[in-house]
Task: structure prediction
Amino acid sequence: MANGDTPERILLVGFMASGKSSVGRELASRLGWAFEDFDTVIEARAGKSVSEIFTEDGEAEFRRLESGVAEELLVRTEVVLASGGGWPAQPGSWNMVTGHTMSVWLQVSPAEAVRRASQEGPLRPLLEGGDVTNRATALLLVREASYRRARYALDSEQYGPLELAGEVVKLMTESR
Ligand code: S3P
Result:
């Protein structure tokens, strides 16, 4: 997105449990825009949960569905999008992000992501099993460069969804 342009959509990226959905919902309601969560759309299309897709069909099939959903959502306007934590690191993902998309990386540490994810209920498929914090640390390391491609980065460790949504609105206004 070039300076002076009003974004047509906002794309939130970041690790699992970095707050993409809660910030996205708050932001959409402030802007009067729609909110779409990649995982929710995938689940509705597949008729099963993300966990079931991973177990029954495998990660490759999940990524195929995810890529199709991303391609559709990334051309919609006046929409806040919460991508899945792994989507930005898939080959070709960022090619779908056009110049009118304001992308924001919500930064969180692996330990905090694991703490939040454990509180939210059943663990995400990629965090199941032992040594969760170590695995989250390794995954984040691999993915960090892809998150860094977002135009803005905000600290989602210290700030909550309301503050972060406010910050994004501020950035939108400032970049105009
Ligand atoms: C994944 C993150 C999840 C979901 C799936 C895979 C990942 O989304 O898409 O479990 O690869 O990091 P959230 O980031 O919303 O948890």
